[in-house]
């Protein structure tokens, strides 16, 4: 999700302070192709079943309440402030939908901004035995029910959409759905914030992100972004662990900070919040949207699709995966950082997929012809279409092996059964930064957070505390598609370890600037070693014992071009986005004592017995 200042609110709403607007808000300010359409604005307080009143802003074409065709609703629920919704903003952000005519509704969720009640992060779904049993599904139903009865000249049809936290809320509209809901589009939704979305990835805590989230959403009822001028690398290193950082910021007693501090494992608390466990049937047509370089919620889009698709008897679960960061499809989408995709992919998506999707299901119009999945293949910069994801027809499994002397290739290792592919000493006192320093606050002034996943990795690739494996210069194109899986055989001299694997496209040195020699991450992910056997019950690792670690690096659809190289990089820290692993086992890393942080030797194997590799699909 973006859990803080999500600039990507689909109604063009700035979710936080204007000084902190991420690039989406700047992108949508570009001239729309359509002329402005005047919308009237009204605010209402809608009673939920338990008596709590929920604030909404309603925008509709001038005069449409009295004459003209009845209009469907397009609803977005948000923790980031409905008060920002204006006619000008929706004209900038959704020109096609605005021109067609909809009743746009933006809703403050319970406990945020002008809505009453108590805010609960990713409020879990509960059993509905009485009027006091409320969650986001009931608040959605109650809001829709009121709108249908009190907003004149509506068509009785509702679409719900949103990016990030609002993407999570859009999915809530598809669970125990109100009969009027005819289409939803969860975009970069928060789906499982422990396994792979905002707060943890495979057990590793996203320290800077969790820290800034608590400061922005729980220290007060409206958004106040964290904006420290200090290099966050220094701040978190000096405070040792998350407990120390939270105490320094006087936020240890805030609800989510307490959870971070006391429940770092995959406890019932996190399991109850997991959306995918509730996706046991398809209730309404669903369009999932995500980006290959989403810095916040890369996991949720594909996880929701994977959960829903087996139940998709009518062929009404769709997915779009494009070359975007978090919410980047809301802007032009021609570039991300230094990487050029050759065409305005965001505009293409909105005009040819999102707009006709809602037109079909809310107005009965033709033009939506997506049959399954639209995937933008980077490298060659072209859209591909598949029946399902990962694709099946026309693809075969491939393996890319890590070998001795930093070799990387498609031939399985032979020879010595104990061949070491690479080794390094990882020192918690000098962790590898996740992006070039200084590291700004996540949404602070001048922050480079949004495009960090496409940052040139040469800023770390020469460090001695990681291992690189590289192919020779490719003599033909190589395409990787689907879920990219790391299968790493490794050992540590300690009793705990983090493993970070990156798949990198290395451009030729003579490529046109700025891509000459550029090292572009295609997929990447971390795994915390203590969770090798169980996410619920962490255990110490036996020193020097070779273990097999297998985890997803996320999906991709990318072609490594002839003349490029493929690189795999393995490291054991990614700081301060992820907290430091002490590398000696402690019950709770959040409060690990200073003496637990020790340098350890990490060894990666590449032999017939221990064939470390990446697995993926490639076209036949």
UniProtKB/TrEMBL annotation:
It comes from Granulicella aggregans. NCBIfam families: CocE_NonD. It holds the Pfam family Peptidase_S15. This is Xaa-Pro dipeptidyl-peptidase C-terminal domain-containing protein. Keywords: Hydrolase, Signal. One of its GO terms (molecular function) is dipeptidyl-peptidase activity. InterPro entries: AB_hydrolase_fold, CocE/Ser_esterase, Galactose-bd-like_sf, Xaa-Pro-like_dom, Xaa-Pro_dipept_C. Gene3D superfamilies: alpha-amino acid ester hydrolase ( Helical cap domain), alpha/beta hydrolase, Galactose-binding domain-like. SMART domains: PepX_C. Residues 1-25 form the signal peptide. Residues 355-615 form the Xaa-Pro dipeptidyl-peptidase C-terminal domain.
């Amino acid at each position: 999700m973006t859990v803080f200042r999500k600039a990507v609110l689909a109604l063009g709403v700035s979710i936080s302070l204007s000084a902190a607007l991420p690039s989406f808000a700047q992108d949508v300010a570009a001239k729309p192709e359509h002329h402005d359409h005047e919308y009237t604005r009204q605010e209402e307080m809608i009673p939920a079943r338990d008596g709590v009143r929920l604030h909404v802003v309603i925008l509709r074409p001038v005069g449409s309440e009295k004459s003209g065709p009845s209009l469907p609703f397009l609803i977005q629920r948000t923790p980031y402030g409905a008060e920002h919704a204006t006619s000008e903003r929706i004209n900038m952000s959704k020109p096609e939908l605005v021109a067609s005519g909809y009743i746009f509704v933006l809703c403050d969720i319970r406990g945020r901004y002008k809505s009453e009640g108590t805010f609960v992060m990713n409020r879990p779904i509960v059993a509905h035995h009485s009027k006091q049993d409320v969650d986001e599904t009931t608040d959605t139903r109650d809001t829709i029910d009121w709108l249908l009865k009190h907003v004149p000249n509506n068509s009785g049809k509702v679409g719900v959409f949103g990016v990030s936290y609002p993407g999570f809320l859009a999915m809530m509209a598809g669970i125990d759905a109100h009969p009027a809901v005819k289409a939803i589009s969860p975009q970069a939704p928060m789906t499982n914030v422990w396994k792979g979305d905002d707060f943890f990835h495979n057990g590793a805590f996203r320290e800077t992100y969790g820290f800034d989230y608590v400061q922005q959403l729980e220290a007060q009822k409206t958004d106040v972004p964290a904006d420290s001028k200090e290099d966050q690398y220094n701040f978190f290193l000096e405070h040792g662990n998350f407990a120390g950082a939270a105490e320094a910021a006087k936020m240890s007693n805030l609800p989510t900070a307490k959870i971070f501090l006391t429940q770092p494992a995959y406890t019932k608390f996190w399991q109850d919040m997991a959306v995918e466990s509730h996706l046991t049937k398809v209730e309404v047509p669903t369009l999932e949207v995500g980006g290959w370089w989403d810095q916040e919620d890369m996991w949720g889009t594909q996880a929701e699709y994977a959960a829903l698709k087996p139940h998709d008897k009518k062929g009404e679960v769709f997915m779009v995966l494009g070359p975007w960061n978090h919410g980047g499809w809301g802007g032009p989408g021609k570039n991300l950082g230094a990487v050029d995709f050759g065409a305005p992919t965001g505009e293409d998506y909105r005009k040819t997929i999102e707009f006709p999707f809602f037109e079909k299901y809310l107005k009965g119009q033709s033009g939506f012809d997506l049959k399954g999945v639209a995937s933008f293949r980077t490298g060659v910069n072209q859209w591909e279409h598949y029946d399902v994801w990962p694709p099946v027809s026309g693809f075969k499994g491939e393996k890319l092996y890590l070998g001795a002397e930093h070799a990387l290739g498609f031939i399985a290792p032979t020879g010595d059964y104990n061949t070491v592919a690479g080794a390094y000493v990882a020192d918690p006192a000098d962790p590898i930064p996740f992006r070039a320093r200084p590291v700004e606050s996540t949404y602070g002034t001048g922050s480079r957070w949004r495009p960090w996943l496409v940052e040139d990795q040469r800023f770390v690739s020469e460090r001695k505390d990681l291992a690189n494996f590289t192919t020779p210069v490719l003599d033909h194109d190589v395409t990787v598609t689907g879920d990219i899986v790391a299968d790493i055989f490794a050992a540590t001299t300690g009793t705990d370890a983090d493993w970070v694997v990156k798949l990198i496209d290395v451009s030729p040195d003579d490529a046109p600037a700025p891509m000459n020699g550029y090292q572009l991450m295609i997929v990447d992910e971390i795994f915390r070693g203590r969770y090798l056997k169980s996410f619920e019950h962490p255990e110490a690792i036996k020193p020097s014992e070779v273990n097999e670690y297998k985890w997803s690096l996320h999906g991709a659809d990318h072609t490594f071009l002839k003349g490029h190289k493929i690189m795999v990089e393995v490291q054991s820290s990614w700081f301060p986005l992820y907290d430091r692993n002490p590398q000696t086992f402690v019950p709770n890393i959040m409060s690990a004592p200073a003496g637990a942080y020790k340098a350890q030797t990490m060894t990666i194997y590449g032999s017939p017995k221990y064939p470390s590799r990446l697995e993926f699909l490639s076209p036949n």
